[in-house]
Amino acid sequence: MRIKHFKYLYSCIFWLIVSLVSAQGVDVLKAEKDALLKEIEDSKRTLKLKQTTKESTLQQLQLVGQEVAVREEILNSLEGQIKELDRSIDANQTKINVLESDIAVLKGDYSKLLQDTYLRRNSLNELAFFMSAADFSEAYRRYRLLKEYSIYRQKQGLILYESQNRLIALQNDIKLQKEAKESNLAEVETEISNLSLSRQEKAKLVASLQNEESWLLKLIRDKENEAKGLEQKILEYIRSSSVSALGNDFSSFEGKLLWPVRKGFVISNFGEHEHPVLKNVTIKNNGIDIQSTLGDQVFAVHNGEVSRVVGIPGYNTTVLVRHGKYLTVYANLREVDVKQGQKIYAGDSVGRIFKEESGGSVVLHFEIWHENQKLDPSKWLSP
User: Where do the H-state alpha helices sit in the chain?
Assistant: First the structure.
């Protein structure tokens, strides 16, 4: 019975820890995403004040697209937490049902024990019970019988007491879990409303750009040509350069690299994607585009050696940094703080992001290469 009690206790503790950790995880994620949403909203507001052009509308669409993605992530996390709470509530309720049944049986058995003890006490004197034994051996056996009976009665009382305490603990857990679920359901309703508004805003921006198909197609072609130009420069450099000794531990930093800006968020992800406005049109990104929200300074993500500082059409000034067999690319800079051949360390300033005089968004184009293979930077930067 004691082993069963410990297993039961460990099971309760396990479910409680899972619920708490899961809830804390959602709270942390929501706090991070709320901060990100504020940054996006600030960027949108600044952009609206500074520009009213087709370019600014497209930038607004990128920001709203990111906002929608963030809100969807928050909503999915909240819904996941609700499902986890439901599973925990169901599991605890099953345990309560079993425990209530066990307690009912224990109470019945314990009541009979007490009643039997009371009757024995009134009808039989223990001393007389011992004295009537045929010999010492028989008297000792009778003593042991009464002693074991007393110990058994005490154990049954303790089991009943512990079972009642476990029942109270489970009932309190379920109460807290149900309160957390109600809170999450309220947040889900709020997030659904916010997500709907963000999607409506996105739809309006898309509609406003749908009449600009020729301009958008030209913009796509120009961007593709600029990306090919950058890619060609990188490949030429890779073919002609030697491996750097500094930063050759780069491969062990996947998911742990510093961000190249102090604060910001990704507005264009790695790889191929559907165009946000034009149907059946895909766009490709060899890296990621990061909207900086705290200044325009750019920092090295890891120790390495500055290999090239070159001007690339569409990307202004670009800095290439070698890290062993890996290469990081910082494009769309207006000023640089490094020179070719210079050793650079994680967190050192690389330069500043290009910014339109009219006050457009501050966007860094960032790539990671391993020899001649393009990698997804989002998987390498720290969360």
Answer: 2-50, 54-123, 126-131, 136-209, 213-240
What is the DSSP track for 163-177? HHHHHHHHHHHHHHH
351: left (phi over 0), alpha (psi -120 to 50) or beta: left
Separation CA 273–CA 151 (nearest Å): 74
What letters, b where the CB count within 10 A reaches 16 and e where it falls short, cover 18-33?
Answer: ebeebbeebeebbeeb
For 154-178, the pLDDT digits (tens) are 666 566 667 677 778 778 888 888 8
**What is the amino acid identity at position 173?**
D
Q: Nearest Cα to 36, choosing from 67, 10, 60, 59?
A: 67
Q: Which fold has domain 241-379?
A: Glucose Permease (Domain IIA) (2.70.70)
Q: How much is the pTM?
A: 0.68
Q: What is the CATH number of domain 2-208?
A: 1.20.1050
Q: How wide is the angle at C-alpha 222 spanned by C-alphas 357 and 236, nearest 5°?
A: 100
Residue 56 to residue 182: CA distance in whole angstroms: 41
Spell out the domain ranges in the chain. Answer: 2-208, 241-379
Query: Which tens digits make up the pLDDT trace of 185-203?
Result: 888 898 899 889 888 988 8
Which one-letter amino acid corresponds to residue 379? K
